[in-house]
Amino acid sequence: MALNEFDIIRTYFAPLSVSAPEAFQLTDDAALLNIPDNQTLVCTKDALTEGVHFFPGEDSYRLAQKLLGVNLSDLAAMGASPLAYLLALHLPQNTTAQWFEGFSHGFKDYTAQYGGTLIGGDTTTYSGPLCLSLTALGTVPKGQALLRQGAKPGDSIYVSGTIGDSHAGLRYIKDTLTELPKLSASQSEYITQRYHIHTPRLALGTALLGVATSCIDISDGLLADLGHLCNCSKTGAIIYPHLVPLSEAALASHIPMLELMGGGDDYELLFTIPQKNETILQQIAPPHIPLTKIGQMTDTAPPHIMLVDAQGKKITLPNKKGYLHQAGL
Ligand code: ADP
Ligand code: MG
Fold first, then answer.
1. Is residue 271 helix, strand or coil?
2. Calpha distance 40→166 (Å, rounded)
3. pLDDT tens figures, 219-251
4. What angle do CA 78, 82, 86 make, to 5 degrees?
5. pLDDT at 4
6. What is the C-alpha to C-alpha distance for residues 133 and 46, in angstroms, rounded to an integer?
7. Cβ–ligand 1 contact at 84 (below 6 Å)
8. Burial class (CB in 10 A: 0-12, 13-18, 19+), 34
9. Does the beta carbon of 23 sit less than 6 angstroms from any atom of ligand 1?
10. CB atoms within 10 A of CB 117
């Protein structure tokens, strides 16, 4: 790599830190972070490794957005607002200036849209695959964060957006949709985008503060993540698969509903609402984010999830392997 570590930090990353003066333009050993007394700091980290979480040769602009997206979805699930980021890059020795150019632009554009400032990190080169790790810091009013625990039997279960698009997009990219109907150009473009670019539901997360009893972001698949929420809340759940919202493109793919509910990378929010709050939910929901009721929490032992069809008949759940996140690409 012709650029040394300090050139990289000065040229590509220091400009991303200018709105946080306490980051000293990335020239000191560490950044300082002050948060208001009435706020709690919310901290999360997610890493992406080439060949595991993204295809080798992936466009660096899109990669920056993917890295931010997976982290911001966790902040959204806690009801937090983004504040700052720490970025660790483990780079193959042949990483080019063009790669940094794309990555820093992707980072800048995405944070301009969703908030938060780069305040530090670490940059190393080695002979292994590209590995990116981000720590995202956010704030939430003290005592108000949305947790996975807190759902009560009888609460309604809602999801934002549509489910399974990213899974359909990955199948399309890997060309395993051949036995399924051919999608139109706009449908395949839509599911591919949903796989590559995540839309963290930050505005929804903040709107749900004081309204939802629990919340999780769907990254491993709707059924798997609902299982995590049930475990933490010590509840069971009934889900009505015919109510689960699908995009026109996912519907047209004819991928079975149970597979879409088991696919990962939706980055939508799944949350529970007590009946008394259901009427205000539609008023506080940010515009353009569809919210759909798909079931109720029950008092059965966690994580007992029952699927019931439109005729009221029980559907047999897929075995664990069928809906756990499949590691790798
Ligand atoms: P040290 O050797 O003391 O850890 P570094 O040379 O690693 O210092 O980092 C110098 C400064 O640059 C620090 O403020 C660090 O947070 C920042 N920095 C290094 N790499 C990155 C990066 N990839 N993104 C953002 N900031 C970075
Ligand atoms: Mg360092």
1. strand
2. 32
3. 999 999 999 999 999 999 999 999 999 999 999
4. 110
5. 87
6. 6
7. no
8. exposed
9. no
10. 19
For ligand 1, whether the C-beta of 121 sits within 6 Å is: yes
For 163, phi then psi, to 5°, come to -110, 140
The tokens describing 262, both together, are 């088991």
Report the distance separating Cα 246 and Cα 253, nearest Å.
11
For residue 216, what is the enclosing H or E element? strand 214-217
Whose C-alpha lies nearest to ligand 1, atom 19?
122
What pLDDT is stored for residue 175 in this prediction?
78
* CA angle at 115 for the pair 27 and 292, rounded to the nearest 5°: 150
Amino acid at 256: P
Tokens of 278: 């259901």
Q: Scanning the structure block, which residue is given the tokens 């063009």? A: 98
The bound ligand whose nearest atom lies closest to the alpha carbon of 9 is: 1
Q: What is the pLDDT of residues 20-57, one digit of tens each?
A: 999 999 999 999 999 999 999 999 999 999 999 999 99
- Contact present, 85 and 136 (Cβ < 8 Å): yes
H/E segment holding residue 117 = strand 117-126
Q: Would you tell me how many other CB atoms lie within 10 Å of the CB of residue 122?
A: 12
Task: Please tell me the distance from the alpha carbon of residue 151 to that of residue 311, in angstroms, as a whole number.
Answer: 27
| DSSP structure class, residue 10 | I
Which amino acid belongs to residue 103?
A: F
Where do runs of H (alpha helix) occur along 115-183? 165-173
For ligand 1, atom 7, which residue shows the shortest CA distance? 122
Contact 164, 255 (CB under 8 A): yes
Give backbone dihedrals phi and psi of 13, rounded to 5 degrees, phi first: -105, -35
pLDDT band, residue 3 (cuts 50/70/90): confident
CA dihedral 67, 81, 150, 247 (to 10 degrees): -60
Q: What is the pTM of this model?
A: 0.93
46 within 8 A of 324, measured Cβ to Cβ = no
Q: How far is the CA of 33 from the centre of ligand 2 (A)?
A: 18
Q: Is the CB of 99 under 6 A from ligand 1?
A: no
Beta bridge partners of 84: 117, 137
